[in-house]
Amino acid sequence: MHIWVDADACPVAIKEILYRAANRVERPLTLVANQMLRVPPSPWIKAVQVPSGFDVADQRIAQSAVAGDIVVTADIPLAAAVIAKGAWVIDPRGELLDAGNIQERLSMRNFMETLRNSGVETGGPAAMSAADRQAFANQLDRLLAKCC
């Protein structure tokens, strides 16, 4: 079991939770981004820098993830791709995405993108809260308990 992180937009607080978890359960954690990332020294943690470009990090994760891996991402198309391969997906706010809810999330994402493309202001996500961080940590612990 490997933990993959779509790290370009992953909040620092979530990365810190992931670092502690990877060391605690001694499982590999790979952060994938198109910029250089600093990660703590650990045999379990590494960062991979991919070339700049649209969805290059997502493509790398989608190609690398296998059934049973955990992927941390807010990117719905990436989540759908790795769920189809049998991976677990947690968004940075702690929501578990799976075969039962990913189609609904894809439909909503596509609808919101259509609105934005037609000029409608849809706003962005709310700021990350302490409750979001706790929800993420709890969901990650539940998955690690299942997988490890």
Q: Give the strand order of the largest sheet, numbering strands 1, 2, ... along the chain.
A: 3-2-1-4-5-6
Gyration radius, rounded: 15 Å
Largest sheet: 6 strands, mixed
The SSE order reads EHEEHEHEEHH
The pLDDT mean sits at: 91
Dominant shape: globular
| Number of distinct beta strands | 6
What is the rounded distance between the termini?
A: 8 Å
* Class by alpha and beta content: alpha/beta
Relative strand content: 5-15%
Q: Portion of residues in helices?
A: 40-55%
Uncertain residue segments: none
Total of helices: 5
Written overview of the protein:
The protein is of the alpha/beta class. The protein has 5 helices and 6 strands; from the N terminus they run βαββαβαββαα. The protein has helices at 12-25, 56-64, 76-84, 102-117, 130-147; strands at 3-6, 29-33, 45-49, 70-72, 88-90, 96-97. The longest helix has 18 residues, at 130-147.
